[in-house]
Design a protein that fits this description.
Elements: E1 5-10, H1 14-26, E2 32-38, E3 42-44, H2 49-54, E4 63-65, H3 66-69, E5 74-84, E6 89-94, E7 100-104, E8 107-110, E9 114-116, H4 127-130, H5 137-156, H6 160-166, E10 168-172, H7 176-192, E11 205-210, H8 221-233, E12 236-240, E13 244-247, E14 251-254, E15 259-261, E16 264-267, E17 271-273, E18 291-292, E19 305-307, E20 312-313, H9 326-345, E21 358-364, E22 367-372, E23 375-379, H10 380-393, H11 397-412, H12 432-443
Parallel strand pairs: 1-2, 1-8, 2-5, 8-19, 10-11, 10-16, 11-12, 18-20
Antiparallel strand pairs: 3-4, 5-6, 6-7, 9-17, 13-14, 14-15, 21-22, 22-23
Helix pairs in contact: 1-9, 5-6
Bound molecules: flavin-adenine dinucleotide.
Length: 444
């Protein structure tokens, strides 16, 4: 019997997991062995991450177990640490093992996703140290814990300025993720106020900074105007054409030098390809650090290395890289599976072609905007459309039922305003004195 071809997929997120599923459908077990390497044994269903953080659904209900999703593929739960292209092997550190191993491959797929883009210090300082993010399950839970801490401290103080500072939440980046975060966070925090005797909804401030002249540049003009009005009516301040140049523990400095006291800064100002790619020797990278690919998903100049998803710049029919979205990665996967199968079986490769089907943005409080296949709607219908579409897209029936039940319960019952306490990070820097004494200790 001929030896099986080994296809190793780096990253089991949207791109990697859907690809593994497609490959194991196209290639028989006797023909190919598919191995996913990921640091987690699940991937995050990102469209539901903000809701999971803010308590409309249980956090684990926005995860998808990789083994269940792609049962015919093998999963290696490990941190990817290096690549030997000539030797056709990947270096990994299996979780908890503390030692490195090599995994050999015949074909390699790079699907390591993206990270939140942090600007250089001379453009905006203090982001890494003081800001919060929305990229991992931990980020979502830490932000919820942080909001609750801010409420607890605000309830315990009689100093009105300090109360205002503690309950001022700043979001930097007014595109889809930033707007989704501010919409959900505002709902969460204001609803929680009912439980605090010394805090009222009017003590809370939410500010979005967006450098572009308008928020939500990606959606059609009348929808973005509608969203801006809806958010402003709820008291959310939208500061456009301006950004933040310093983030501190207890304030931000705007690009026009104004100092604005706040307790929590959430950074959603863009994404960048996974920086690990730069450590994987021999991969062709573009100027943004993404995997440079040809239209058939092959890494430029390499015939056994492929890429898809956020970390790969795969040109579409218009020559521009396909955008970094889950809806793109999911539909790239079967095309790439066909090409890998063709390259193993001696067939011809096809050019990839996947476009954006639509944009849906939930704004919190049962409102949203949707622009999908020519249909442009806003308000409660758009919000219902968002929920309906993502419920259908949630993988596996059991998970769909869990999410639907969470949403149903959320309609009638108050959320649990509890800290999950999974990360001590959420406790950092809330009070001025604590910050000063901690940083003084660090310096000694
Ligand atoms: C809050 C939020 C909301 C979003 N909402 C939407 C939406 O509504 N619609 C939409 O189309 N898109 C949405 N997106 C974008 C979407 O999530 C991405 O485009 C999609 O996840 C890209 O898939 P991917 O496979 O390239 O990366 P990912 O899904 O991020 O997968 C990358 C995988 O690589 C693994 N990995 C990374 N580094 C290592 C390492 N060193 N070792 C081992 N494993 C590693 C990670 O654990 C992860 O599982 C959203 C993104 C965010 C952050």
């Amino acid at each position: 019997m001929a030896e099986r071809t080994r296809i190793v997929i780096l990253g089991g997120g949207f791109g990697g997991a859907y690809l593994a599923k497609a490959l194991t459908r196209r290639l028989g077990l006797s023909e190919a062995e598919v191995i996913i390497i990921d640091r987690n044994n699940y991937f995050i269903f990102y469209p539901l991450l903000v809701e999971a953080g803010c308590g409309s659904i249980e956090p684990r209900h926005c995860t998808v177990p990789i083994r269940e999703f792609a049962p015919k593929a093998e999963l290696l739960m490990a941190e990817i640490t290096g690549l030997d292209l000539d030797g056709k092997r990947v270096r990994v550190e299996c979780c908890g093992k503390g030692a490195e191993d090599w995994v050999e491959f015949d074909h390699l797929v790079v699907a390591l996703g993206s990270v939140t883009r942090i600007l250089p210090e001379h453009i905006c300082s203090g982001v890494k140290e003081h800001a919060f993010f929305m990229k991992t399950m931990g980020d979502a839970i830490v932000l919820r814990d942080r909001a609750i801490e801010a409420l607890e401290l605000a309830n315990a103080t009689d100093d009105p300025d300090e109360k205002k500072r503690l309950l001022h939440f700043v979001v930097v980046g007014g595109n889809v993720t930033g707007i989704e975060v501010v919409g959900e966070l505002e709902t969460f925090v204001r609803e929680a106020c009912a439980l605090y005797h010394n805090v009222s909804e009017s003590d809370c401030t939410f500010t979005v900074y967006e450098l572009a002249p308008e928020i939500l540049g990606i959606v059609p003009e009348h929808l973005r105007n509608w969203a801006a009005k809806a958010l402003t009516r709820r008291g959310i301040r939208l500061k456009t054409g301006i950004s933040v140049k310093e983030v501190h523990a207890d304030h931000v400095v705007q690009s026009d030098d104004e100092v604005v006291p706040c307790s929590t800064v959430i950074w959603t100002a863009g994404i960048a390809p996974n920086p690990l790619l730069k450590e994987l020797d021999g991969l062709p990278l573009n100027k943004f650090g993404g995997l440079e690919c040809t239209g058939d998903y092959r890494a430029a100049g390499l015939d056994h290395v492929w890429g898809l998803g956020d970390n790969a710049a795969v040109p579409g029919p218009d020559g521009k890289p396909m955008p970094p979205l889950a809806q793109i990665a999911i539909r790239q996967a079967p095309q790439l599976a066909d090409n890998i199968a063709a390259s193993i079986q001696g067939g011809s490769l096809k050019q990839g072609h996947v476009g954006v089907q639509g944009i849906l943005v939930p704004l919190g409080r049962h409102r949203g905007i949707a622009s999908i296949k020519g249909i442009k709607i806003h308000g409660i219908l758009a919000w219902m459309m968002w929920r309906g579409i993502y419920l259908m897209k949630t993988p596996r029936l059991g998970r769909r039922i869990r999410v639907a039940l969470d949403w149903f319960i959320d309609l009638f019952c108050r959320r649990d305003f509890v800290q999950l306490g999974l990360s001590p990070k959420s406790r950092r820097e809330l009070g001025h004195q604590k910050v000063e004494s901690e940083s003084a200790q660090e310096h000694h």
